[in-house]
Structure formats: structure tokens, C-alpha cells
Amino acid sequence: MRTVVTVRVGVACGVLLLAVPAPVPAQTADDLFDARALQEIRVFVNERDLHQLRTRYTENTYYPADIHWGDVRVRNAGIRSRGKGSRNGVKLGLHIDFDHYVARQRFLGLTSIDLDNLWQDPSMLREYTAMALFVRMGQPAPRESFARVYINGAYQGVYAIVETVNTSFLMRTLGRDDGFLFEYHWIDRYEFTDLGSDLAALEARFERRTQGSAARSAAYAPMAEMIRAINALPDDQWRSGVEPYVDLRQFLTHVAIEQFLSELDGLTGYEGLNNFYVYRGHGSTRHQFLPWDRDNAFQDAQSSVFHRADRNVLLRRALAFDDLRAFYLGVLERCATVAASDRWLERVIAAAAAVIADAAGKDPLKPYDAGARDAAVRHLVEFGRVRPAVVHGAVTDARAAQARRRN
Fold first, then answer.
1. How far is 126 from 264, CA to CA, in rounded Å?
2. What residue ranges do the domains of the chain occupy?
3. How many CB atoms lie within 10 A of CB 37?
4. How far apart (Å, rounded) are the C-alpha atoms in residues 228 and 199?
5. Which CA distances in Å does 401 have to 235, 301, 311, 405, 406?
6. Longest Cα pair distance anywhere in the chain, in angstroms?
7. Are the beta carbons of 292 and 276 closer than 8 angstroms?
């Protein structure tokens, strides 16, 4: 309902009252990423292009499309298939570049968004909830909300709207976008072991997302020096030699949040590093880690807070320092306290589940049935209830063990 404002206007024979509609507030990116409401996004694409998109979904070929969100319309955006294990031609995951065909075109100030098809997560809530905890813990993380998505008028089901990690994201979260942003790509098991002097090996794993015209050495030499320091320096020189390249406390905060979330496929993933970005500011050699893709979080409420920690060279060597280990345990403790306070984590899960419940039930393309989804949501709620106490207990035990070693 539009608000009506009464305006008093003076005329010769008296006073006339006019009902004037108040201006409707402009819609913003914050409105798009408001997860308290279920959004609606409509995609219109040539049927021939849509057929190509579905049959050649493994490719990153762009096709022109119009995007509608409420009263906001964008013409000739570029859409392509997205995802790794979630890619399929049935329920398409979509990356939308608003300026792919039209230079400097923006949508609510954004250059791009992702529509995550939630193909691998029957609860449809894992990534949204995980990112909410990262933000709650003061870490930069993509904004997310949920939407009914239609393509050419046909309902495709529930999707997550995901903020792209790009220069707009960097400005919003870090206040700067002048440095090097890298997206990590899994090739094989890798856990910060030394790759030698060949920068091409780093480039294959860490794809540049900014500063594409800069020389390879400018982009990757500081990262190679970081990895060399992580591996080669003796214990008595390690801290002073690594800290110029890595914000160790930020790294440990990121890992601790992942460990609290029982993340299967992150910095301590089951097959090595995965699902993160790295940012290095202009004129700096220091690297910061940014989360991405949390469909595999919330695995086991009883999982260790040091799960696979011995495999990651950077984490293993950082935790060998008593003060850094104590810091790491402190972050885990804060995660548990935040999650348990007022049952925050349980409430976040329950609220999001309620927002999407009807639309998820009617999702015609999801690869799991209502029973599997209900069970997955119950698992998350139980995780939110149990995990804080498990982590508090693990932190207490780890501190006691650390005290015994010192004595």
C-alpha cells in the first residue's frame, strides 16, 4: 500500500486538501539481499539461447537476457552457467553480468550477481547461514538472500542470490579495491606446500579477478614469496618472516569459523584447500582470505575443532605458537558464544527455513524430495542447538592440554 500524504494548499476561497502519493523509496542492493523476504527474479532469454545454455551447461558461454526484479528492469545482461559440482542443465545455476554487453550497465549499483541453484544442499540453507556467521564474527563475506526464479515465465524453484566477490564487494567490505583479488580453483590436493619458482603453477590455482593487465610477476611474486616463507623458514624465524605476507590472526579467524561450522570443503578441506578468495591491497605484500561457497558446512556437530589442521602447512605452523593457538581457541569460543546467545544460530536457520518453505515445497526441479529437505533442515537446527556446547568443551580441553605442555 502506498502512503498518502495530506498537503495543505491555500486558495482564494479557502483551503483545499489534496491527497498526494508519497514517493516510493528507491530499491537498493540492501533490499535485494534482505533475506527476511523471499525475492522474485524473472529472466527472459531467447528460447534458442536457453536451449544452448541447458545443453552446453558445462561451458561458460554468455547469452543476452533481460532481468526483472520488481520494478527494476535490466536489458541485455549477460548470463552463463555457473557452479562446480552443482552445474547441470536441469536447474541452471546462473552468473549474471550486467555490463557484459552494455558497458558500465549496473543493477542496483552491482556489476554482477550469482543465482545459486542450491542443487547440492537439500536444506537450501547451509551457505546463507554460514555466511551469516562470518558476518556476525566481523569478517567480510558475500551477502545472500533467497528468491523464486522464473525463466521465460516458467518457475525454476528456490535460488540463493549471492553477492559476487569483485571490486564492488571489496569496496563495501574493505573500503578499497585497488589491489589484487584472486579466486582459488581446486586442481588437486594442495595445502600451501611450496610450488617452486614457476609462477604459472600459482596462476593456475589462483585466478586473477582484478588487475588483469598487470605483469604476472607483479601479481604472483608476493604470493610465491609467501608460500616459500611458510615452508622454508625455521621455527625461530617463521613468525617474523611470514607475517609480512599473511595476516595470521585474520587467517586463524577464518579457519576457526570454518571449524566451528564443521566445513568439509574449505581451507582445511577433505581434498585440500578450496572455496575461498584472496585479496592483497595495492602496495602491500599481505594477503587476506575471503569465504566462498559453503554448501558443505554443518557436517557434524561433534567434529573436532582441529579437524585436518595438521595437513595445512600454514595452519599447522601457526598453531605451534602458543599465543596464536590461544587466539584461535578464543575465536572458536566466541563463535560458540555468539551462536548460543539467545539461540542465535537456531533462530537464523528457523527464520530462513520459514521464508522459503512454501516456494521450496513447490520447487519443480530440485533433485531431492520434501522428506530429504525436512530432514536436512532438522539436521541444521540440531547442529545449531548442539554445536556451541561441543565447541566450548573442546576449547576448555585444548586450553588444559596447552597448559600441561607449558608446564
1. 12
2. 34-163, 176-341+385-406
3. 11
4. 12
5. 21, 22, 20, 6, 9
6. 94
7. yes
Residue 263's nearest CA partner among 192, 335, 313, 319 is 335
**Residues constituting the chain:** 407
Contact between 263 and 294 (Cβ < 8 Å): yes
Cα–Cα distance measured from residue 347 to residue 36, given in angstroms and rounded to the nearest whole number: 12
Element (H, E) at 10: strand 4-11
* 45 beta partners: 65
CA-CA distance, 145 to 150, in Å (whole number)?
16
Q: How far apart are CA 386 and CA 401, in angstroms?
A: 23
pTM above 0.85, yes or no: yes
Residues 344, 353: Cα–Cα separation, whole Å: 14
Which residues, at least 6 apart from 278, have a Cβ–Cβ distance to it below 8 Å? 181, 182, 184, 206, 223, 287, 288, 289, 290
Q: Tell me which residue of 312, 319, 307, 306 sits closest to 239, measured CA to CA.
A: 319
Cell of 28: 537498493
- Residue entry with cell 532469454: 45
Q: Which amino acid is at 222?
A: P
Single out the residue of 43, 50, 94, 46 nearest to residue 66, CA to CA. 43
Q: What is the pLDDT along the chain (407 residues), one digit of tens a residue?
A: 333 333 333 333 333 344 444 444 569 999 999 999 999 999 999 999 999 999 999 999 999 999 999 999 999 999 999 999 999 999 999 999 999 999 999 999 999 999 999 999 999 999 999 999 999 999 999 999 999 999 999 999 999 999 999 999 999 999 999 999 999 999 999 999 999 888 999 999 999 999 999 999 999 999 999 999 999 999 999 999 999 999 999 999 999 999 999 999 999 999 999 999 999 999 999 999 999 999 999 999 999 999 999 999 999 999 999 999 999 999 999 999 999 999 999 999 999 999 999 999 999 999 999 999 999 999 999 999 999 999 999 999 999 999 998 88
Identify whether the C-beta of residue 50 lies closer than 8 Å to the C-beta of residue 43. no
Q: Is 88 helix (H, G, I), strand (E, B) or coil?
A: coil
Phi and psi at 176, nearest 5°, equal -155, 150
Count other Cβ atoms within 10 Å, centred on residue 395.
20
